[in-house]
Design brief:
The complex is a heterodimer of chains A (about 800) and B (about 350).
Chain A: H1 2-18, H2 30-51, H3 56-74, H4 88-107, H5 116-139, H6 147-160, H7 167-192, H8 210-232, H9 239-245, H10 266-274, E1 281-287, E2 295-300, E3 302-304, E4 307-309, E5 316-317, H11 325-329, E6 334-344, E7 351-352, E8 358-362, E9 368-371, E10 376-379, E11 388-397, H12 400-405, H13 414-419, H14 426-435, H15 442-452, E12 460-461, H16 471-480, E13 482-483, H17 485-498, E14 503-509, E15 515-516, E16 519-523, E17 527-535, E18 539-543, H18 565-569, H19 591-596, H20 608-611, H21 618-648, E19 655-660, E20 666-671, H22 675-695, H23 706-716, H24 722-740, H25 750-764, H26 767-775, H27 778-807, H28 811-814
Parallel strand pairs in A: 12-13
Antiparallel strand pairs in A: 1-6, 1-16, 2-14, 3-4, 5-9, 6-11, 7-10, 8-11, 9-10, 14-17, 15-16, 17-18, 19-20
Helix pairs in contact in A: 1-2, 1-5, 1-7, 2-3, 2-5, 3-5, 4-5, 5-6, 7-8, 9-10, 14-17, 16-17, 21-22, 22-24, 22-25, 23-24, 24-25
Chain B: H1 6-9, H2 15-30, H3 37-48, E1 53-56, H4 63-73, E2 74-75, E3 78-82, H5 89-93, E4 94-99, E5 104-109, E6 116-120, H6 127-130, H7 133-139, E7 141-144, E8 147-150, E9 156-161, H8 174-179, E10 182-184, H9 191-203, E11 214-215, H10 216-227, H11 233-248, E12 252-254, H12 258-274, H13 282-293, E13 298-299, H14 301-305, H15 310-320
Parallel strand pairs in B: 1-9, 1-10, 2-11, 3-6, 6-9
Antiparallel strand pairs in B: 4-5, 7-8, 12-13
Helix pairs in contact in B: 2-3, 2-4, 3-12, 10-12, 11-12, 11-13, 12-13, 13-15
Chain lengths: ~800, ~350
């Protein structure tokens, strides 16, 4: 019985381990305690029933009963007997919890708080899995099948997080499963008889049997592969970000539906869409407001060293009522209520574009939630594509005087604390200190920063700059002063935050260039980002720092007027050089040109073209790298040959007499050469000869002496070529003398001999061999292969030694004497 | 007769002098043995390497003739022993006899007291008699009745024998064979040489007309020259490798002795000198491996059953053994890197 009971507890523990991935869903660990209680109850019931020798169905019944009692105790409805015996009221309570859990699943985004309903669902699920695992592993002895219910637990976070789930819980779960398998097999073998250690086959009794060791290794490799492989597949890690960032997607949201809007990189989506050559209609909006401010759908307010990030939004269903902004401000803010209708066409996001701030929505179901802090509409399961809805909104307008009169936020204000977190970047801090110097109130500081982003200060609009909002990117932008809305919005938000005033980046659409009365048709070219600054008692106030002339449908307000307006009335000198020849003053009013030609929309700043580096495709770099890699062996070979040639050429230092050689050739006769030098020369020439032989696929025999090699070549290969025959004999003699004689051969020019032999070999070889010898010399490849083999053998030997040393402390070995076998 | 020490004999001779002296001997012998230049040179090389020569072949191929021709070409003391089954050790080494005039025992030197000893049909004598040669061949001395007598230099035993398959013979014991530096086979002459032999040997034995072209002093000088031939470390290593290979070969029950290594290198020096070189090549060792090593080794029963001769086994070893490199490891060296004598998958034993 003991092994079976042991297996039962391992099954329970494995179930708990397999539940580890749920940690990604819950904010806290309460669920684990409750699930552990349920699993322990189930396992205890199973053990007791087995102790009483129940049949399988009896065991299942006992476990289910145990689970029911456990659930009743953990989630009391108030009508239980003795706190754990359920009554009809308990079941009604459970039904309520189930219903509420369905509702809460829609309401909460991850990570969810400890809500009774969701905890109930979780504990019920894990308890159920524990029952199934126990039945499969202990009752039916099919522990492999028990992996399926465990996988079911894992599928929950996978379904919630579309993009990626952390790997650690998966590994924990996998370990639990493997533990179950191992325990079952050990038990099986133990029943069969004695453990087979593989004794006598170079395996000691204390060592694991080769079979078991192989099994363990396979398991580790399997888990490692399961974790590592997805990381290697592009699109699996942050598939969404990459797909959007490349701008290749048809929309700018995730495919499919559901999921959390918190993981979208809106910046990447923005630049991707703006850079697309095609113009796609995304949203059609009608409003009764005369000149509405931008349509808004997203906010990035979490500033990290690598840039602004989108936070996971939290909120309530839109149908539960939206907060009324009039209550919040309460001061002399001009607020009017308007109504708008939106038809989303090609926007594919878990966010809905609205005008700030919506107070009432129509035609939206409960899965759409409103975050009152971010003032955005989002969903954890639905998607904006094809949505059609209407909403009422309140438009607030502020006067500079009003904003100037707002008090600075107290230091412990949560918004201030949260929204002014700024990584220290020295250049930015210096600039901010310079800009806000002498400014008394928040509004003046913000205006000083806002005004800084003007054409006057050299800022230009360019879509071809690199994306990104990290500290470096901001510094770059402030230095080059060329960028698009993303950089302007992020830079201003960064600077304002650095000045100690809460700021964030908002995303949405400008009013575009295609309007018909109160209806605006917005395309991907109208996507925009701007800055929102928080003023105490007023709320979030939008500022658009991007040069208005370059943005079709830009809107300026009284509190944030167009900084470039004075310039617009008088054409700048540089503007005449604009390729289109259009009047820059008409920039904002010339939407067609801007739509088609966003990059050249503002060339007043000049120097734009110079900053547009040609974009080389990645594959070109790849091809280049490949070519370089392919050329490496040939380069190595020629370097080797050059070095040896230097060796094999008679040294210039010695006295050289030129005498006419046979057939009129001039022979260098060297006198008084240093023997060591001559020896080295002969070795170099011989090495080169061997390499040449390998290159031309002529056999190289290590048992042959130089003389024998030379004679074989004369016999087999170089029969016809008299020059080569003389050359090879000379080389053989020189090497032989260099190796074995007292005095090496001196005064013979080895390099010409080498050349003649090489020529004869090349003439004899076929074309393929010649090409290979030139491009991928086999000698170099062989050398490398030998080196790799040597290294790896050395490594294997070293690791073997290390392993031996480690095995000395192997617990199995230390306990070997005590274990009864 | 007092002998010069090797220092007095001197080192390297001028190239031409060595060549003239050695070529004269070879040419003289070739008057008798036609078409066997390589064999003749090897015989001379053994003489210059201060070794002993065993000529082994079927009857009638000129073994004795080669031995006698070599002996006659050099003007020195030559003795001949015809080994017969009833020959006694004292006939070989000498014996003390009682001299009635002096009333004392007097040593009568045996046949080995000569510069060249030609032992014909050595395997026809009993092992007892064969063993009489052991001391004199290795130590160049004879001890009779407790008195040791030094032999002269050059001292060379040229023995002939029929292959042991022939009847009426006593195979040479191991120790005896090991004392012979080289064993050479005469082989049948080729057609042209045999024809020439018929002409030359038809009327009279050309051996009778052979005149000495050299003398013991010259031979000593030649030996002195050979002793000075340069042997590089790599060549020494190769010699050791070769002999070690015979000891480790699977086909061999007994490998070659350290004495074999020594004699291999000595003979290689002589061969190199005869070829006009003052340094030894691995090629020399390769060429000498079969004559010098093959008669010392004993194949296993399996190899004997497979009818593998020791010559073939040694030739194969030579063919398989890589040359030692005195430089860094060659890239074409496919042997595994040295691993402290321990393979990566060697069984672990705590």
């Amino acid at each position: 019985m003991t092994p079976t009971r042991n297996l039962g507890f391992v099954a329970a523990a494995a179930t708990l381990l397999a539940a580890a991935p749920l940690s990604a869903i819950f904010e806290r660990w309460t669920w684990l305690i409750q699930a552990a209680i349920a699993v322990v109850v189930v396992a205890g019931a199973a053990a007791l029933s087995r102790l009483a020798r129940f049949p399988l169905w009896g065991q299942v019944l006992a476990m289910l009963t145990g689970l029911l009692l456990g659930l009743t105790w953990i989630f009391p409805g108030g009508t239980e007997l003795l706190a754990f015996v359920p009554t009809p009221g308990t079941f009604a309570h459970f039904r309520d919890l189930m219903g509420a859990s369905l509702q809460d699943m829609r309401t909460y985004g991850v990570k969810v708080p400890d809500v009774d309903s969701l905890l109930f669902l979780t504990v019920l699920g894990i308890g159920g899995v524990a029952v199934v695992v126990d039945v499969l592993a202990v009752g039916l002895r099919r522990p492999a099948l028990a992996g399926l219910p465990m996988l079911a637990i894992y599928s929950v976070p996978v379904a919630v997080y579309v993009d990626s789930v952390p790997a650690t819980p998966f590994v924990v779960g996998a370990c639990g499963y493997l533990w179950l398998l191992v325990t079952d097999n050990v038990d099986r073998v133990r029943r069969f008889g004695r453990r087979f250690t593989g004794e006598g086959r170079d395996v000691d009794v204390w060592e694991a049997s080769p079979l078991a060791a192989a099994g363990r290794r396979l398991a580790v490799v399997g888990v490692a592969l399961a974790v590592a492989l997805p990381l290697a597949v592009p699109g699996m890690t942050g598939g969404l970000m990459e797909a959007v960032g490349n701008g290749t997607g048809d929309g700018n949201g995730r495919p499919g539906q559901g999921g959390s809007p918190g993981r979208i990189d809106l910046f990447a989506a923005l630049s991707g869409q703006l850079n697309q050559s095609e113009v796609a209609e995304m949203v059609k909006v009608s409003t009764n407001e005369p000149t509405p401010f931008y349509l808004r759908f997203g906010v990035a307010d979490e500033l990290r060293p690598d840039g602004f990030r989108v936070r996971v939004p939290t909120g309530r269903s839109v149908n539960r009522g939206l907060p009324d902004p009039t209550e919040r401000t309460g001061r002399a803010v001009d607020q009017r209520r308007y109504r708008a209708t939106v038809e989303v066409k090609n926007l594919n996001m878990p966010l809905l574009p609205v005008y700030a701030e919506p107070v009432k929505t129509e035609d939206l179901n409960n899965s759409w939630l409103y975050d009152p802090n971010l003032q955005i509409l989002f969903s954890n399961r639905e998607n904006s594509r094809g949505k059609r809805y209407a909403f009422d909104y309140v438009r607030s307008t502020y006067s500079p005087a009003l904003l100037r009169g707002t008090p600075s936020l107290p230091a412990d204000d949560p918004v201030l604390r949260q929204q002014t977190v700024t990584p220290a970047v020295r250049a930015v801090d210096r600039l901010v200190a310079q800009l806000v110097k002498g400014k008394q109130n928040d509004y003046d500081k913000v205006r000083a920063i806002y005004d800084y982003f003007s054409v006057e200060n050299g800022f230009t609009y360019s879509l071809s700059t690199r994306g990104g909002t990290s500290g470096d990117d901001i510094t770059d932008f402030l230095a080059t002063k060329a960028g698009f809305c993303q950089q302007y919005a992020a830079a201003m938000a960064w600077l304002v935050r650095a000045a100690g005033i809460p700021a964030r980046v908002a995303f949405g659409f400008t009013n575009g260039s295609n309007s018909d009365g109160g209806t605006y048709v917005l395309t991907n070219r109208n996507l925009h980002a701007w800055t929102e600054v928080y003023f105490g008692g007023v709320g979030w106030v939008p500022f658009d720092a991007t040069p208005a002339a370059s943005v079709a449908g830009a809107v300026r307000s009284a509190w944030a007027p167009d900084t470039d307006a004075p310039e617009e009335s008088t054409p700048l000198p540089g503007s005449t050089a604009a390729p289109s020849g259009a009047d820059p003053s008409a920039g904002a009013n010339d939407p067609d040109r801007l739509d088609k030609d966003a990059d050249q929309g503002l060339s007043v700043g000049g120097g734009d073209a110079a900053q547009q580096n040609p974009v080389w495709p990645w594959w070109l770099a790849g091809v280049l790298v490949l070519l370089v890699l392919l050329a490496l062996p040939a380069l190595r070979r020629s370097a080797l040959r050059r070095r040896r040639r230097v060796r094999a050429v008679a040294p210039a230092a010695s006295a050289v007499a030129t005498v006419p050689g046979p057939r009129g050739a001039v022979r260098d006769l060297t006198v008084g050469v240093d023997p060591e030098r001559a020896r080295a020369d002969a070795h170099a020439a011989w090495d080169e000869l061997l390499d040449t032989l390998v290159d031309y696929h002529v056999r190289v025999d290590r048992t042959e002496t130089p003389r024998a090699t030379a004679e074989r070549l004369v016999r087999e290969t170089l029969v016809e070529d008299a020059g080569a025959v003389t050359g090879i004999r000379l080389l053989g003699r020189a090497e032989e003398r260099a190796r074995y004689a007292r005095d090496p051969l001196t005064g013979e020019p080895l390099h010409p001999a080498l050349g003649s032999v090489r020529g004869a070999l090349a003439a004899r070889a076929d074309r393929r061999t010649r090409i290979m010898a030139a491009l991928l010399p086999p000698s170099v490849l062989l050398r490398w292969r030998t080196a790799v083999t040597d290294r790896s053998m050395g490594l294997v030997a070293t690791s073997g030694r290390v392993r031996d040393r480690l095995l000395r402390w192997n617990p199995r070995r230390l306990l070997a004497g005590r274990v009864a076998r | 007769m007092t002998q010069q020490t090797w220092d007095e004999v001197g080192g390297l001779l001028p190239h031409d002098e060595f060549r003239a002296a050695s070529e004269a001997i070879v040419a003289n012998i070739e008057q008798v043995i036609e078409g066997k230049t390589a064999t003749v040179r090897l015989a001379l090389a053994v003489l210059l390497a201060e070794g002993h020569l065993l000529i082994e072949d079927v009857p009638g191929v000129g073994k004795t003739k080669l031995a006698k021709a070599l002996a006659r070409s050099i003007d020195c003391s030559v003795r001949r022993i015809q080994f017969t089954p009833d020959l006694l050790p004292s006939d070989v080494t000498g014996v003390s006899v009682y001299n009635q005039e002096t009333h004392d025992f007097e040593f009568r030197p045996g046949a080995v007291f000569a510069n060249l000893v030609v032992g014909d049909e050595i395997n026809r004598a009993s092992p007892k008699t064969q063993s009489a040669l052991l001391e004199c061949m290795e130590e160049r001395q004879v001890t009779v009745d407790g008195v040791t007598y030094q032999l002269q230099t050059p001292f060379m035993v040229i023995a002939t024998q029929n292959p042991i398959e022939m009847e009426g013979t006593y195979p040479l014991p191991e120790a005896q064979r090991d004392r012979f530096t080289a064993r050479i086979a005469m082989g049948y002459p080729d057609a042209g040489a045999e024809l020439a032999m018929l002409d030359g040997h038809g009327a009279a034995d050309p051996l009778n007309g052979l005149r000495p072209v050299s003398d013991a002093a010259t031979v000593r000088r030649l030996i002195g020259h050979v002793r000075q031939v340069h042997v590089a470390d790599a060549v020494k290593q190769y010699a050791v490798d070769l002999v070690t290979a015979t000891r480790e070969a699977n086909d061999l029950r007994l490998g070659a002795s350290p004495r074999a290594t020594l004699q291999l290198l000595r003979t290689a020096r002589a061969v190199a000198a005869l070829e006009g070189r003052d340094y030894v090549l691995p090629d020399d060792l390769q060429a000498l491996a079969v004559p010098v090593l093959a008669h010392r080794i004993i194949p296993t029963a399996d190899a004997q059953l497979a009818r593998r001769t020791t010559d073939a086994i040694v030739a194969e070893l030579v063919h398989r053994l890589p040359l030692p490199h005195d430089r860094k490891r060659s890239p074409y060296d496919t042997r595994p890197a040295p691993n402290n004598g321990r393979g990566p998958y060697e069984p672990r034993r705590p």
